[in-house]
Amino acid sequence: TALGDKVKATVTYAGKVSRVEVSQETLTAEGLEMVLDGICAAVNGAIAEADKAMEAEVEKATGGVKMPGMF
After folding, report:
1. pLDDT per residue as tens digits for the range 9-46
2. Which residue, 23, 43, 53, 61, shows the most beta carbons closer than 10 Å to its own?
3. pTM (2 decimals)?
4. What confidence tier does 58 reach under pLDDT thresholds 50, 70, 90?
5. Who's near 41: CB < 8 A, 6+ residues apart?
6. What's the per-residue H, E or C state across the chain?
């Protein structure tokens, strides 16, 4: 999320953006440039969260053993 949770992005474990949400009120109040910056921040934050979640799932599945080529 970004702009105080006014912009939201959802990213899959594969790093693909599956959804971006911005209300019309936010677009009107903040302006296009600010909302675009918010989208970038929200997507980057969502990618980081997805990466952390994937790392946690891999660690759980491997019992903490590091696999070559994985994270």
Report:
1. 999 988 899 999 999 999 999 999 999 999 999 999 99
2. 43
3. 0.79
4. confident
5. 2, 3, 7
6. CECCCCEEEEECCCCCEEEEEECHHHHHHHCHHHHHHHHHHHHHHHHHHHHHHHHHHHHHHHCCCCCCCCC
